[in-house]
Amino acid sequence: MKGRANNPEQFKRRLRETWDKKMKNGFVCWNKGKKGFNANEKSGMWKGDKACKGSIHDWVKARKKKPELCEECKNKPPRDLANISQEYKRDINDFKWMCHSCHQKLDHKLEVRTFVPCKRGEENHLHKITENQAREVKKLLANGLGAWEIGRRLNISHRITEHIARGETRNMETYLKYLEIRTENGAWR
Fold this sequence. Notes:
By secondary structure, the chain is mostly helical. It is built from seven helices and two strands, in the order ααββααααα. Among the domains are: 48-109, no CATH class; 126-172. The longest helix has 18 residues, at 8-25.
């Protein structure tokens, strides 16, 4: 029965035999017993101190034991892992487990803005299309072409075209006006 399986039934039977043999002998994963084999600094994806805030939070959460009570007020159970210096270093002692109210007080004392507006349009490094492409999409929509056809012509997603057609995208001027209104109302103070 060596060689290739010529029909689907033969293939299924050989697959079942191989699987049963592995399970009978005890299937062993390639990295069993190799704890920390490719973890932390050994990983090819390791960024060290250049990692984003979320990654550093996850790294600290995995290493700093969560106490039963807030490290600040010692009254409520902790909910948030707060960075004390706002430098986001890979230092466990630079973080505290706090209840939400203590965390908010700390951020207010340090004048940390909780909402940072992202850049819009071509200013955002994740932008999908340029302003010129958006203008071209609007022209083609006015001429009666559909989202799929426009997507094929301009090599962009039909979803982006549909968003533009519904008027769900903002240009930079509109977004800056929005930010001015929010700032005047004291939304970020």
